[in-house]
Structure formats: C-alpha cells, structure tokens
UniProtKB/TrEMBL annotation:
<dbReference type="InterPro" id="IPR002659">
    <property type="entry name" value="Glyco_trans_31"/>
</dbReference>
<keyword id="KW-0812">Transmembrane</keyword>
<keyword id="KW-1133">Transmembrane helix</keyword>
<keyword id="KW-0735">Signal-anchor</keyword>
<dbReference type="Pfam" id="PF01762">
    <property type="entry name" value="Galactosyl_T"/>
</dbReference>
<keyword id="KW-0808">Transferase</keyword>
<dbReference type="GO" id="GO:0030311">
    <property type="term" value="P:poly-N-acetyllactosamine biosynthetic process"/>
</dbReference>
<keyword id="KW-0333">Golgi apparatus</keyword>
<dbReference type="GO" id="GO:0000139">
    <property type="term" value="C:Golgi membrane"/>
</dbReference>
<dbReference type="GO" id="GO:0016266">
    <property type="term" value="P:protein O-linked glycosylation via N-acetyl-galactosamine"/>
</dbReference>
<keyword id="KW-0325">Glycoprotein</keyword>
<keyword id="KW-0472">Membrane</keyword>
<comment type="similarity">
    <text>Belongs to the glycosyltransferase 31 family.</text>
</comment>
<keyword id="KW-0328">Glycosyltransferase</keyword>
<comment type="pathway">
    <text>Protein modification.</text>
</comment>
<protein>
    <recommendedName>
        <fullName>Hexosyltransferase</fullName>
        <ecNumber>2.4.1.-</ecNumber>
    </recommendedName>
</protein>
<dbReference type="GO" id="GO:0008499">
    <property type="term" value="F:N-acetyl-beta-D-glucosaminide beta-(1,3)-galactosyltransferase activity"/>
</dbReference>
C-alpha cells in the first residue's frame, strides 16, 4: 500500500514537471518539425523561462545582457536653450548615448537558432507598446500569423519596452510575460516605450537580430496599426536576392526637421542643426533585406540616435551610401480612394496592396477575411 502511494506521489510530481515545462515551452506553429526539435532543448527552455537580468550559463556569452544601467549625460543640460525644451526632449538628450538596455523577454529560438535562421523567409518585426494587447491579438490571427506561404516561412516578433510606473508597470510587464509564454512572440527591453525612444527600440531589435536571427532573408518592419498584406509581400520579395540591398516603402524625400514646438515630430536645433533629412521611408511599415538590416546595424553603432525612428533608418542608409526606394503598394499615408461616395473599406482597394497605415483592430480583422474571400469580385476579374 505504502509503495503504491509513493509511486503515485512520484508520478504526480513527474506529471507536474512535465506540465510546467510544456507550458513554459511555447510551441511554434507545427509546420516545421526541426524547429520543434531545436526549441525543446531543456537548457534553453529554462533560460527562456527566466525573465529578468540573470541569465543561465548557456547564455552567459551573449553580450546583450551584460550592460549595466546607462547614466544620464549631465553635460547635455549645458547645451544652449536646454532648459526651455519640453521634458521629453530633455530626456532624449540626457539619454541619447544609451544604446544598450537589458532584455526582459527573449526569444533566442524564434528563428530556430542563428545557424538555422536562413529558414525564415520573412520576419515580421512589429513595434508594439505593452498596453496594445488587442492589436497584437488581432495581428496574430490575421496578417501576422506564423505560417508557410507558398513555401516561404513567416515568423513574427513584437518589440516592446516598458510603460507606466509602479503597479501599472508591473501589470503590463506581467501581461507581456503571459503573452510571451503563450505565443512566444514578445521581445521586451527595460526602457521606457515612448515615441522618442522608438529609434532605441529599432536599434535594440537589430542587435538582437544579429545574435538570434542573422540569416532571415527579409524583414517587414512596421507598426501594430497597419494592414500588411504579408502574402503579397512574400510574392514581391521572392523576386529579390536577400543578400543584396533592398529597402522599400513609402519614400519621403526633400524634407527636414519640423521646428514647430507643438508638433509631435518637433526636432529642435539642439537635437539636429541641419535643415534636411536624407531620403527615408515612412515608419508605418517598410520592407528590407537581411543584408540591409545588417548594414544598418553596423552603421548605427557609430551614429548618434535620432529621435524619429524612420529618419534614423534613412540616416544609417545614407551613412552606408545606400538609398531607400519607393513602392506603390506601400501606403503609410493612407490609401487615396477616388471618390467620397465609395466605401473606403472596399476590399478591392486592398487586395493588391502591400501595406496600408492606420487600421483599427476590428477593421484589420474584417479586411483580412475579405481580401481572402475566393468569391471576391473586383473590376479586373
Ligand atoms: C556645464 O557648464 C558649466 C559652465 O560652463 C561647467 O562648470 C560644468 O562643469 C558643466 N557641467 C557639466 C556636467 O559638464
Ligand atoms: C554629453 O553631452 C555633451 C553636450 O551635448 C556632448 O558634447 C557629449 O558628447 C555627450 N557625452 C556623451 C557620452 O554622449
Ligand atoms: C528612453 O528610455 C530611457 C530608459 O528608460 C529613459 O530614461 C528616457 O527618458 C527615455 N527617453 C525618452 C525620450 O522618452
Ligand atoms: C561596418 O562599419 C565599418 C565602419 O563604420 C566598416 O569599416 C565595416 O566595413 C562595416 N562592416 C560591414 C560588415 O558592413
């Protein structure tokens, strides 16, 4: 009798451990048995389950985690006119030199490990603030679903910082941790997720990519409120070589910093003296090759952070002697619908685009269903 009880206790214990591990390990969509194999390495499982700064020995070699707190640059306050700047710009100048922050939630096996990351054709890199749970949830079920489209593997990561303070911050961090566990698609760093820190987020992502996903062929870099036709993107990208330069989107040229204090994009002379920006693509979303991502990351190490993230990408491209180009299918400024009388959400306008900016979560959900409806009839068919 005693023996049976003991066995039952042991069995229950084993089941518990198995259950815990199973929960911790977020399975990738099962289109690839090999990715599953490599992600079930127990050492990595445990490392993945440990958010925070301490890393398991398996990861001690990764420099990403070894950066301490970055201190504010007090001399920034000595710049002429500093005290008259809005607080967020003062903060930007105080912390402009800080390019490394600790990773709170990591996905070391998102691409099957660095060596196998060439299996990933299109990596969707979506900027998302912690509170945007509904947006992430809709994207997971629509255009950002991890899948294989015409033989091309699509993977998804949301990139995030922290927001709020005190209890609210803890709650939002908990939310991301739960999503990370359940969906395996959150990268989070310990910095304030604000508009003027988007460039920092971008650079931290490129740093992660070099480490964990260096051979992914192409990236979609975008916001969490876009409608991205990821199927069309794959078709478009298949005609390109990921080892060559590619950077396409909604091209913006011959513009410079906005000097009006009230604007969201206000960039004072204390941040940039020059009156012009190099050509860049609107930050709602753009496509780039793995090659170009690596070049931009390399250049970013020696360039001062610019508060506007899409402009910063343009600055890095220019630094490497490269140019972004325009693609008609990328409409980060919205879609021009010919007449106010027609339904602006007619799926026929969207079935051939690559990307359109500013959709509400429910609109994305509806549009994704509609453009994939085989019964959809448009003018040209
Ligand atoms: C700021 O400028 C003042 C005077 O020019 C100088 O005494 C001080 O050391 C400077 N502070 C920093 C932190 O550089
Ligand atoms: C700190 O700010 C001053 C004034 O803008 C600048 O000259 C200096 O290079 C900055 N230091 C660092 C470490 O970025
Ligand atoms: C960027 O994040 C750092 C670290 O959290 C923070 O100190 C700084 O104020 C933020 N900068 C802006 C402009 O929000
Ligand atoms: C990285 O940038 C440095 C200069 O900033 C350049 O010398 C080097 O060739 C670049 N490396 C790559 C791989 O692009």
């Amino acid at each position: 009798m005693r023996m049976i009880k003991l066995e039952a206790v042991i069995l229950a214990g084993v089941l518990c451990v198995v259950f815990l591990l199973w929960n911790v390990y977020n399975p990738l969509p099962n289109d690839d048995a090999a990715t599953h194999r490599s992600s079930s390495n127990p050492v990595q499982l445990l490392a993945k389950a440990t958010p925070g700064h301490e890393r398991s020995p398996a990861f001690a070699g990764r420099s990403l985690y070894l950066w301490g707190d970055c201190h504010r640059n007090q001399s920034a306050a000595n710049v002429t006119g500093f005290s008259a700047l809005p607080g967020y710009l003062q903060n930007f100048l105080y912390y402009q030199h800080c390019k490394h922050f600790p990773l709170l939630l990591d996905l070391p096996l998102k691409c099957g490990g660095a060596a196998r990351s060439s299996d990933v054709f299109l990596l969707l890199v979506i900027k998302s603030s912690p509170g945007n749970y509904e947006r992430r949830q809709v994207l997971r079920e629509t255009w950002a679903e991890e899948r294989v489209h015409r033989g091309a593997r699509i993977r998804r990561v949301f990139i995030s910082g922290t927001t709020g303070s005190g209890f609210e911050k803890l709650q939002l961090n908990k939310l991301l941790e739960l999503e990370h566990r359940r969906h395996g698609d959150i990268l989070q760093w310990d910095f304030e997720d604000s508009f003027f820190n988007l460039t920092l987020k971008q650079v931290l992502f490129l740093e992660w990519m070099e480490d964990c996903c260096p051979r992914a062929h192409f990236l979609l870099n975008g916001d969490d409120d876009i409608f991205a036709h990821t199927g069309n993107m794959v078709d478009f990208l298949k005609g390109h070589d990921s080892g060559q330069h590619l950077f396409v989107g909604h091209l913006i040229e011959n513009v410079g910093p906005i000097r009006e204090r009230g604007s969201k994009y206000f960039v004072p002379v204390q941040v940039q003296t020059s009156e012009s920006y190099p050509p860049y693509c609107g930050g709602g979303g753009y496509l780039l090759s793995g090659h170009t991502a690596a070049v931009i990351y390399n250049v970013s190490k020696s360039v001062a952070l610019h508060p506007i993230d899409d402009v910063f990408m343009g600055i890095c491209l220019a630094g490497a002697g490269l140019r972004p180009v325009s693609h008609m299918g990328v409409r980060t400024a919205g879609l021009h619908i010919p007449s106010p009388k027609v339904n602006p959400h007619n799926p026929c306008y969207f079935k051939d685009v690559l990307l359109v900016h500013r959709f509400l979560p429910h609109q994305i959900y509806i549009m994704w269903e509609q453009v994939h409806n085989p019964a959809l009839r448009c003018w040209n068919n």
